[in-house]
Design a protein that fits this description.
286 residues; alpha/beta; 3-stranded antiparallel beta sheet; two-stranded parallel sheet; aldehyde dehydrogenase (NAD+) activity; Ald_DH_N; ALDH3B1; Ald_DH_C
Amino acid sequence: MGLQLPVAHALGPSSLAGSAFEAEVSEISISQNEINLALRNLRAWMKDEKVSKNLATQLDSAFIRKEPFGLVLILSPWNYPLNLSLGPLVGALAAGNCVVLKPSEISKSTEKVLAERPRPPEAPPIRGPAPGVSRPLSRAAPTVLVDVQETEPVMQEEIFGPILPIVNVRSLGQAIDFINRREKPLALSQVVKRVLAQTSSGGFCGNDGFMHLTLASLPFGGVGSSGMGNYHGKFSFDTFSHHRACLLRPPGLEKIYAIRYPPHTPRNLRVLLMAMETRSCSCTLL
């Protein structure tokens, strides 16, 4: 049946509670899907990944082996406390790591829920939140800041709260220049094709700000100061795995490979460089 999320208690104090509908969509459902996807596909994710070879390695076995890093620290923010805790946690554990999880100090009830023992697989599935289960929101009221200048403090770091600064620009081109001369944002949207082609960000969602998060087939993560690496589904497993380069050479072929050793000649160099070219080859060294 798979692991069921322990959501029988409130994820946040009632004074911080948002919509239970939103919590189900953006927190519980996405997290549950991450768990189920890993349980279904982990065996395939763990398999050695064969890679192409050059002429010099045609008789060898070349592959990438996925191994755990060992110990992983996950620091999750408060704005999606369950999703942004369990998303990377699933991938890190699936990759075989030991994980230290530090939820946000703002979402204390979520921390309490995550510290409880998970529901056993034989327990009936949870079809929706218990009354009061919702996503914690900031205590500050939604605020729109107008005529904001680029040098003001609110423009110096990412905002994880209900604050929307508005910067006036004269054209789309000026807006794109503004984006490109600053640190890369976590996500972009609107004026889709041109913005997508002329800017860079951790993720991109045209004409929407959320739905790309629901796809485990798309990586979620930042770039530059927004953070490096990504997760969701197999991307989580790969992010928390060491991709070990492996080449296994059969014994008894040292005479074939002796072209690498002195005395060095121009002919041997040409042959070796040709054999080392990066290309898929079905030839056999003679």
